[in-house]
Amino acid sequence: MPRTMLITGATSGFGRATVYEMVNRGWTVVATGRRIDRLEALQQDLASDLLHTVEMDVTDEASVDAAIASLPESITPITSLVNNAGLALGVLGALEADMDDWRTMVDTNIMGMLTVTAALLPQLVETGPGASIINLGSVSATVAYTGANVYGATKAFVRQWSRNLRTDLVGTGVRVTDVSPGMGETEFTVVRTHGDVERSDNFYQGAKALQPQDIADCIGWVAEQPTHVNVNLVEVMPISQVWQAAAVDRDA
Ligand code: NDP
Ligand code: 8X3
């Protein structure tokens, strides 16, 4: 089984936990993200020959190409790609939401994922059986709630893209999986609220939300399935979280 994984958005949350998980499983890991100080901290903390770090902004095609071109031959081809970089911005309904936030979510969650995937697809196909692409979706792909508007829609894209890509890749040996978490306690809500740490802390307070390691475990499990097995979708929520009944506005 080939074992070199590139993870986008590895400087925080699910991506960062997956770096530790996969290095512990003996994989070679390429951790990427925009915050170089965080990548350096990973290097120092893990102090492992299995870890390589490289700056990558998934919204910048030149940055993606340069990062991939910089990888030493000794660790290519990349055999597993985790498209984890992503974000929600804003909590307001569509009437009050900010167009710049919408654009950034589409650029990152959709175009960023596509850019990195297209750049690495030749290496993944070269690897063949055992290769995998693991995309971070979300329960918000199918559950509507106020303020999810564009964020949830980008994750609906991830859901269908994962299935369509898997269909296109049949016969290559490359697997495609959508890992769709519910509420996870990461920097996600600080980012979503544009830096409101108190609001973010209150959101997670007492919720017993998913922890980054929970999703890292899922990703490790998916990546190490036998080569003939494709896990299509992993949807995982904290046991404290459930779906709401559809809301009714009695003044409508
Ligand atoms: P975090 O905010 O903790 O981590 C997000 C990561 O994405 C960071 O490492 C950040 O790195 C990276 N990132 C953001 N923009 C870019 C960019 N333009 N280029 C490269 N990297 C970028 O959030 P999570 O760990 O929670 O989120 C990871 C994924 O999981 C996302 O796709 C998110 O939508 C999804 N998800 C999260 C849930 C949750 O409740 N937490 C639930 C369901 C899905 P840097 O800033 O250094 O570039
Ligand atoms: C994030 C999950 O439920 O906060 O993707 O929208 S949720």
Give an overview in words.
With 252 residues, this protein is of the alpha/beta class. It has a single domain (4-236), classed as Rossmann fold (3-Layer(aba) Sandwich), CATH 3.40.50.720. The chain is built from 8 helices and 7 strands; from the N terminus they run E-H-E-H-E-H-E-H-E-H-E-H-H-H-E. A 7-stranded parallel sheet has the order 3-2-1-4-5-6-7, with helices on both faces. Helix 1 crosses helix 8, helix 3 runs parallel beside helix 4 (99-127) and helix 4 packs parallel to helix 5 (149-168). The radius of gyration is 18 Å and the shape is globular. The mean pLDDT is 97.
- Biggest beta-sheet profile: 7 strands, parallel
Number of helices: 8
SSE string, helix = H, strand = E? Answer: EHEHEHEHEHEHHHE
- Overall pLDDT metric: 97
Strand order of the largest sheet: 3-2-1-4-5-6-7
The secondary-structure class comes to: alpha/beta
| Helix coverage percent | 40-55%
CATH homologous superfamily assignment: NAD(P)-binding Rossmann-like Domain
Bound small-molecule species: NADPH dihydro-nicotinamide-adenine-dinucleotide phosphate, 2-hydroxyethylsulfonic acid
Radius of gyration, taken over Cα atoms and rounded to an integer in Å: 18 Å
Looking at CATH, which topology would you report?
Rossmann fold
CATH architecture level-2 label: 3-Layer(aba) Sandwich
